[in-house]
Amino acid sequence: MLPGSHTKFISACSRLTENYQHVLVLAFAVKEINQNSLILSNITMGFNIYDSCLNAWWANRATMELISSQDKIVPNYKCSIQDNLLAVIEDLTSYFSDEIQNVFGIYKIPQLMYATSSIEIKDSNPLSIRQMVPNGAYQYRGIIQLLQHFKWSWIGFFAANGEIMEWFMKKMLPQFSKSGICFAVMESFTSISYDADKGGFMKTSAEFYEKVMNNKANVLVFYGETRTMVPLRWLFHYEFRQTMQKPKGKVWLLAAGMELKNIANRKSWDTQDFHGAISFTVHSNEIPGFQQFLQNRTPSSSKEDGFIKDFWTQAFGCTFQDSVQDNVGGNICTGKEKLEYLPEYVFPKSVTGQSYSIYNAVYALAYALHAMYSSRPKSKAKMRIEKREHHDHLVWQLHSFLKSVSFNNSAGEKVHFDDNGELIAGFDIINWVTFPNESFIGVKVGKMDPWVPSDEAFSINEDTIVWHHWFNQVQPISVCNPSCQPGYRKKKVEGKPSCCYDCIPCPKGWISAKEDLSDCFRCPDDQYSNMGQNSCIPKTITFLSYEEPLGISFAICSLSFSLIVAMMLRLFMKHHDTPIVKANNRDLTYTLLILLLLCFLCALLFIGQPEKTACLFRQTAFSIIFTMAVSTVLAKTITVVLAFMATQPGSRIKKWMGRKLTGSIVFSCSVIQAGICLLWLATSPPFPEIDMHSVTEEIVLQCNESSSVMFFCVLGYMGFLAIASFTVAFLARKLPDTFNEAKCITFSMLVFCSVWMTFVPSYLSSKGKSMAAVEIFSILASSAGLLCFLFFPKCYIILLRPEVNKKEFFLKKKH
């Protein structure tokens, strides 16, 4: 940019169809500024244009011309008129940017970059550089977010050269790996080598093409610059395409600066492979008044434009009459052709990201220059006070003003820099749609702005994206292997990248509710996993209640047996004077019937929702009642033995027989059990418990015995009494007596011991309400055994054989 000079166009090559919009935006911005007296009063801004043609020699020559006189390329030597150079607005190309930056850095000439660099700037003097585009590293963040959005974890990466690849491996590869993205192939274009003797160029090119198209990744990331599109598009020349029977479709992710352009006008190069490609471009917006400026642009009205005739010739495919000479054939340019009629791929109607950056760069310089000139009177006054000479080193002074420049452009967007001299802006995401006639258009489908909150930094409208024909307009999938479905987890495969894994089912009781989870998770305690192990189901609260069939059945059995016992007791009391009731201690018979009634009713304590009081007393009540019943049976057995021994001549045992002996037996045995129960209640009493783990699908409300030792002590003592009764009865089973109960007691105690011996393993192997059910069944079964074998034979005689239940029958039998 040249303050106080005229505009000059220098055409180095003919890449006008792709860059002519840059020229027009530059001219439009300078025209607006020169017409606005509020920005630069009494100063006219001009510019010179140099086209490097993507060639380092041209770029270096332009650099020398800018710091030399107009006639000769002699830096630092003013031998003629020299342009008043203000700043350089340049394309940032890593191939030859170092040399240009070093030269301009020496002279402290501000440099404003309008294209995104593929790598970090290597500049020892960052003060001289201002980037009118975001840092290129932010693109990688956007690419990572884009890959994560579409769940693409298996990709190919191709770099323009080894320098970019080295920088990527060092700085960005860890970020991709951290985000769960792996690479099927990583390659740079420098791997394509030329060997004249062996024809190695075509061979290595074909090998590179195979790596690009035949790898298993459906997504390919290409990172480079504008000139990278030349070898990239050359790879898709028909010679290589013929090597593949069915060319595969790929999703191309292109870095900013790698837009689809007709490089070198090679329209015969196929673009269909790029159909559906996605690229990041520098953010742009429409510039008010620019479209009207374009419509008024014609060769006749823009004679100062040294590019317009060359552009007109290339864009409209015609020739101006003054240049035809003897060849009168072909189309003649009338100069009335309209730019808006040109295809989008020849001349974009909307402002591109690079053109928008140039527009902002010109205004940034103008506002910085305005601020600098506004500060000069204060600076001169200070110099006069200090009696120092004032030197107008405009270029040197401009850096500080550029650093702090901040303004709203005509599109209403704020333009300012961060501390590193980089523009605070974002990227647009473009979807490229190609057509059979080799034309193409770019459709904006999203954005990436690293300066806004993280939840708003990335957005994309996937419904508007056009995918390659290969995918039948279905979102492509690019993974190393199919995703692990819910209910499975990933297992790393040794020797393969982290994106390649096996899927194994979650362990029982664990779930994975999403795809591709590395770990399974336990359900909360009040939930359990479903059959597919992909969701948790709330557990049902359960206990042995009176409302379920099992609880109702137990309750009916308990009450029925209790009624039978009550009826038996009434029957025995009605026939209390009969020999069969008097035999073997009538009081013990009544006591045992009452205790059996309580045993059957005791089963009801184990049905219903466990509460604190019920848990405290149901085990103790059961154990004491059953101990009294068993001790009563033991007393009856001892009575049988003593009665036989008392009939022996000279026996003194008869005086020991009576209520005192049987009462003392029942009392002493019961007191010991009661003492054990009191100790249990005093040390570790039972309590209600919510068991969430024993049964998978249920939350069990139950009573916790608290001390398994005390519980089995109670059962053990009761079992000891039962075995003692069984042993004594078994030994006395053959004693002669008309109503010898020893046999009945033997069978009853055999059933009783069998029931409670099988109870222990059954109880220990049960879970949830089944534990209560097992104990209730044991109570009812053992009580029923005592009832049946001890009292049913007597009831049979009382009710059906009354003739046997008479004293005369016994006397007659004895004689």
Number of strands: 26
Number of helices: 22
Largest sheet: 8 strands, mixed
CATH architecture of the largest domain: Up-down Bundle
Query: How does the helix and strand content classify structurally?
Result: alpha/beta
Overall average pLDDT: 81
Strand content: 5-15%
CATH superfamily grouping of the largest domain: Rhodopsin 7-helix transmembrane proteins
What is the CA-atom radius of gyration, in angstroms? 51 Å
Integer tally of domains: 4
The CATH class name of the largest domain reads Mainly Alpha
Question: Cα distance, first to last residue?
Answer: 149 Å
Multimerization status: single chain
User: What is the CATH topology classification name of the largest domain?
Assistant: Rhopdopsin 7-helix transmembrane proteins
Morphology: rod-shaped
pLDDT < 50 stretches: 387-391
Features:
13% strand; 26 strands; Rossmann fold; 815 residues
Short description:
This protein is an alpha/beta fold.
Describe this structure in words.
- This protein has 815 residues and is of the alpha/beta class.
- It folds into 4 domains: 2-135 and 286-302 and 349-416, Response regulator (Rossmann fold); 137-283 and 427-471, Response regulator (Rossmann fold, 3-Layer(aba) Sandwich); 488-538, no CATH class; 549-814, Rhodopsin 7-helix transmembrane proteins (Rhopdopsin 7-helix transmembrane proteins, Up-down Bundle), CATH 1.20.1070.10.
- The protein is built from 22 helices and 26 strands.
- The strands form 9 sheets. An 8-stranded mixed β-sheet has the order 9-8-10-11-12-15-16-17, sandwiched between helices. A 3-stranded parallel β-sheet has the order 5-6-7, sandwiched between helices. The protein has a 3-stranded mixed β-sheet with strand order 24-26-25.
- A hairpin with a 6-residue loop joins strand 25 (687-691) and strand 26.
- Helix 16 (586-602) packs antiparallel against helix 21 (769-800).
- The chain starts with a strand and ends with a helix.
